[in-house]
Amino acid sequence: METNAAYQEKSKEELLKIIEQQAKQIMSLNELVNLYRLRQFAQKSEKISPDQISLFDEAELPKQAEAIEETEVAISVASYSRKTPGRKPLPKDLPREQRIYDLADHEKMCDCGHELKHIKDEKSEQLEIIPAKIYVIEHVRKKYACKHCEETIKTAAMPKQPIPGSIAAPGLLSHVIVSKFQDHLPLFRQEQMLRRIGVDIQRSTLSLWVIRAHQLLKPMLGMMKNIIHRYDIAYSDETTVQVLKDPNKGVQSKKYMWLFAGGEPGKFCYYYHYHHSRSHDVPLTFFHSYKGYIHCDGYPGYDALAAKSPDIILSGCMYHVRRKFVEITKLTKATDGVAHTVVNYIARLAHLETEIKDHSSESKYVIRQENAKTILNNMHDYLINEHHRTYPKSALGQAITYTINQWPKLLVYLQDGRLENNNNLSERAIKPFVIGRKGWLFADSVAGAQAAATLFSFVETCKHHDVEPFDWFRYVLKQIPLCQSDDEIAALLPFNIDRSLLGGRGN
Fold first, then answer.
1. Among residues 164, 179, 216, 224, which one has the least CA distance to residue 465?
2. How many CA atoms lie less than 13 Å away from 70 in the CB half-sphere?
């Protein structure tokens, strides 16, 4: 701090500059406090429309009640029309139990004295459910002996099981895996649910089953990694996870679940990977020898990839940029300003991407060169102009600086029509892990975190290819102990498997 004497020696202009600088610092601190409160307590949605309706607004329920009742009626009529609003018809492959209601014999007579004739049936449907069907498979192995010499005894062989000596059949293993890694039910809740139907299986046993399943599926995970490497477009993202017993870091230290994705469209894969750090060594190791584009956010760790190999090109995420400016729009009640202008530029780019969503890669490339390039150039000129007029340490100044620094990566998607201007695909795949993490909170050991990574990889890859994860796990866990070659294992991958072998809906 300067003394009063030092202040007195300064000119009026110098004092004004000092006061202005200090005022900007105070404003910057206020912005940081407001941003912290926003991130901690405000809605996480990036929508900024004031017309959003609260999900729990009781005053709206009476208005919605009539629509809800109409929807209930629409589902029960016999003739389903896709033009009729309401729910979709019940799946035709669900088993059906027909209950027939007929008039009593005396009601089949008309008042005129003649007998009524049956002309048609009025049909409606209801959906019923029976709690989880659970039963015991009793394996009976026939044993034979020679009564003549009394030396030879033979016993019929039993098929190899996913976990030898375990009571867990493939269906039960699949149920445990899907319940945790797709439905986000922690193992302790599954333990309670099993106990309610009279089966006492300890949580530690369930954990062991999950790890054993991960070990069985590891060869397939390696194949998926190779598929990602063989294509020239990939995705990457990461999020934190707490692992209690990692020898590399303390309990409270942050560890990370990394996501890598890619592969040609028909064989697209999600590959989760646990590591105790966020070091650039992790993507460097995974993408060793990779050549092509990588969609990623602005985390500096990815820059080491491009620095090490000229064959790797990083494609930036415009929606990470948007997020920073949307936060600023929430700090003020104004409906215009620099942040709003930038958000509008990005909205125009997003609208263009929506319009060309179903176009070929070649067509996307041409349209982006003709339209998106102009929007981007105008946006860049605007940011450069505002950058010189904005206090660098303010929230707006930091957002502008980040965007300008990321600009070369943000333009990469113009080079190839197959690319996107965002990393949303990775973020959507990370989200299920984040939701699951809120349920089970942490992994106890490194082995548990690695198992989670493997099983999440297959759940999300199944979902991407419209394969029901439960049916896939149940079939694969039964078949993989019988496989004798890599080709047989590769045939079980979600995008290669013969779907007719999976049954369906747990049948």
1. 224
2. 8
Q: In this structure, how many other beta carbons lie within 10 angstroms of the beta carbon of residue 364?
A: 23
Torsion angle of C-alpha atoms 365, 367, 368, 371, degrees rounded to 10: 160
Residues 446 and 507 in one domain: yes
Nearest to 302 by CA among 284, 290, 324: 284
- Whole-angstrom distance between the N-terminal and C-terminal Cα of the chain? 77
Q: Mark whether 329 and 236 lie in a shared domain.
A: no
Indicate the pLDDT class of residue 208, thresholds 50, 70 and 90. Answer: very high
Distance of CA 401 to the CA centre of its chain: 30
- DSSP 3-state helix, strand, coil percentages of the chain (rounded to 5)? 50, 10, 40
Domain that holds residue 338: 322-422
Question: Could you tell me if 298 and 320 are in contact, meaning their C-beta atoms sit under 8 angstroms apart?
Answer: yes
**186 CB-contact burial (10 Å; exposed 0-12 / middle 13-18 / buried 19+):** middle
Q: Which of 101-110, 360-369, 408-417 has the lowest mean pLDDT?
A: 101-110
Taking the CB of residue 444, how many other CB atoms lie within 10 A of it? 14
| Confidence grade of residue 465 (pLDDT, cut at 50, 70, 90) | very high
Q: Is the pLDDT reported for residue 479 higher than 80?
A: yes
